[in-house]
Every structure is written in C-alpha cells, then in structure tokens.
Amino acid sequence: MKKQKIKIALLSGGISGEREVSLKTGGQIYGALSKNKYIIHKYDPKRDLKKFINGAINKKFDLVFPALHGPFGEDGKLQGMLDMINMPYVFSGCLSSALAMNKAKTNVIAKNAGVPVADNIVITKDDSYKLDDIIKKLSLPVAIKPVELGSSVGISIARTKNELANGIKKAFKYGPEIMLEKFIKGRELTVAVMGDKNNPQALPVIEIIPKISEFYDYKAKYQTGGSEHVCPAKIPGEIKNHIQNSAIKIFKAIGCKDLARADFIWSRDDNKIYFIELNTIPGMTSTSLAPEAAKAAGLEFNEFLDKLIEGAGKNNPIR
Fold it and tell me: What is this structure's pTM?
C-alpha cells in the first residue's frame, strides 16, 4: 500500500523585522522538501493569516512548519494558538519559545543552569537611566540589543558615551525593552541541538569569523562572503565538549524540542565561554548555520528537514 503523503503548512514571511530572512528560509525549505513525501501549503502570515487559521481549524494539513523568525512567529504567540486548536508543529512549544525569545530571561535561566553570561542591564523606554551609571557598571565597549528580536537586527556596539546614546535610541525602535551587555571580545562559536528535551544531541560546533563587520551582525550573517564558517570549529576537544554540554543544558532548561541553536563567545580576556543567546527557529538560508552543522554530521538538508518533521510527529502523532 502506498504511503500517504504528509500535508504540511509552511509559514514564512510574517510581520517582524526579520521578515526578509524568514522568506529566504521558507524558500530554502520549500525547495528541499520532497514533493513525493509531502503536500506543502505555503502561507505568509502577513497576508494569509485568516486563510491559514481556517485551514488549521479544518485540518487541511497534518503539521505546521513555521519558518518564521522574531515576534509573532518565534516568540510563543503562534505556538500557543496552535496548541489551542490541537495542531502539531515543528520546533519548541509556547513557553520555551517565549522564554528563548527574551534574551534577558534566557540569560537568567542559562546562569541558573551554571552557564556564564556577560554582565548586563535591562532597561525599558519608561526607565530613567544615566549613561554614566551604565558605563560605570559595564564599562565600554557595550553591546546594545533589543530584548526580543533576532538576526542581529537593532544591535550595535558602543565604544563612546555618544555611541551608547545613539545605540540605545536605535535599539528602542525595535521594542520597548533593551539589554545593555558588557562587550566580550573573543571567538564566536555556535552549536545546534536536535531532539526532544529528554534526549537532545548536539551537532558539530561552528566557529563564525565575520569578514565585513566587527561582530556577526545582519550584514555578516546574510551577505554572501560576509562571514567565514569553520565547521567543525578548530578548537580543543575540551572546549568543544564544554560548549556542546552547555548548549544541551540550556536546551533542557528552557524545555526546547526538535531544534535550537545556542551562540557563545570564547573570551580572549579570561578564557571563559559565555552564552550569548538561543534561537528556537534557526535560519535556514543558503548561508545559515544549523543546516551546515547538520551536513557536517552527515545529514543533507532534505534529510535534516525529514528528521525535524519526524521528531515533531513523534511528539504529536501525525494521522
């Protein structure tokens, strides 16, 4: 008997500041998914939200594959809605997605799990703060980040008081809460973790070497030749094991499933490994890191996607 195709709703685009990256991710996924195994319905929540919700309620598809980044896709809102209508989906659940989206809360959880994080201050638009107090606590340079956004959108490095003021103003354009973090100079390392929270497996560690920026910013991430990825990273075995174990600890502590990618800095000053952030729906463009790590582990992109769908199906049986 011929095996029935799995019907998938592939979501990409959306309304966040990471829309363009999401569209690229969705395009890569659509191109790689086997049309012999899957019937794929494509939706862009920016224009197709009502159509998608009606399809989900009426069980037009078996599983949702959200290729969405940032707010209203990766932050738990979509996941909560899908939970309410009992529609299975790939990637982490509502609470895990919401926690991981918030850099400040993820840092607290990582620290409690025994993984070092950089000193930081969180401020809102309504807070009264003094630049001199921030500099006194964190010293310069300072990394300035919107608390709930990815792809390095809105991030800047301030080396002077004036740059700090401008960076804060810029970051507040992307949300009401920002994080000011002591800038750590060092080697940028990342590791993807696959599986469920009971038995997650770390993929090979990748070192990121930005070529056109001081750090792994939006241009370095998505511009061709913007960065060099060394996969597997050329680092000592004990460092590799430490980073992979730290990523698994955070994956479990947040309660992630299917896939997440944790970013770290190996500090040149004190030789410590610091956790930076966690992505619960990592990018899957032609320059993205998670597919590259999967390939180094022996999984071609289509096999990697099959494994994610299979894992989501195990947690939520597809009928």
Answer: 0.90
